[in-house]
Input
Amino acid sequence: MPKKILILRLSAIGDTIHTLPLVNALKEQYPDCTIGWVVEDKAALFVQGHQNIDHCYIIPKKQWKKRGLSLQNINEFFEIVKNINNEQYDIVLDTQQLFKSAVLLPFLNIKRKITLTGGREFSNLFSNEIVKAQHELFDPNYHVVKRNLELAKYLGADGCKVEFMLSEASVGVQNKVNNLLSALDANKKNVVISPATTWVNKHWSEESWKEVIEYLNGKVNLVFTGMKQDIALIERISANVDSKIILAGQTNLEELAQVFRNADIVISPDSGSAHIAWAVEKPFVITIFTATAALRNAPFGTNCACFYPDIDCYPCMKRKCKLKSDKNLCCSAVPVQKVIEKIKDVLS
Output
C-alpha cells in the first residue's frame, strides 16, 4: 500500500484537470495516503486547496521566464526539490511525460519513479518503472483521462471512475460573480459562450458562431467569456445581440469556474474553458472540435456533447494547417444545425 504519492503534471489547464481523476481514484482506494502535486503557477488553482491533494508545489514559471537564467531561479528550484524530499514520498508518477517534468526526477529521493510508455523528449529515461500503456500517447480515439487512470489501476485503485471534485468558490468569488451577472433575467436560462483559445485553427468560424448566437438571441441570457484580447472577436460575433454580458478580461480562473457554475450551457472550442466547465460538473458542455481529436480530449459523460468535422484530414492535431488550399477547412466544417439541434434538446 502506497503511503505517499507525488504527481508530476506541470501544465496546461486542461491537462491538469484531466489528471484530477487519477488523484481522486488513488485517494478513494488509499484514504490515508498523502498526495502531493508539482504544478506550474498558471494551473495551480485547480490543485491548491483540492480536498484530495495534501501538498502543492508550485513552479513559478512566469517569474522564472521573466528573469531568464538566474541564480535566484536555480535557488528556488532547489528549494522546491528540498521541500519535496522532506516529505519522503515513496512513489512519484510522471503523467506529463515531457523533459520539463522528467528533469525533476534525478533530484528526487523517491524510490519508485513511475510513468507510462510513450513519453516524449526522452522523458522515460528518468523513470525506473515503465508501465505498458494500453494505447499510444496521441491515439486520437483514446481519451487522455482514461490513459491517466491506467496509473491508478497499476497501483491497485479503480481505473474507471471519473471524478474532479473541484473546491467550491470562496464567498468573495461568489459575491463578485453574482455582481457581474446581476443583470441576468431570472426567467431565462443562461448560456455562456467562450469562443476563443490559443490555437487559431481550434477556432470555430465566426460565421458559424454568428448563426448559433442568432438562434439564441432573445431566448436565453447570453454571457461571453475569454481574455481581454478576445473582446474584438466577441463583439463581431455578437454584434446583433439585443442583450449580452461580456466578461472577457474581467475574471481570473477561479471566477471563471464560478461563472460556469451559474450556467445551464457552456459552448466552447477545445480549450481550457471547456475543461473547466466540465470539471465544475454543473452546466451542459458543448465543445466544438476542429483540428484536435474529440475522442482524446473532449468532455464526456451524460452532461456533454462534442462536434467535430467529417473531413479526410481530421484530426491533424497540428497548430498550423498543412493544406495547400482550403486552409483551416476544419474551422468551418462542423455543421451549425447539429449544434443548434443539441442546444434545443438541452433547453427544452
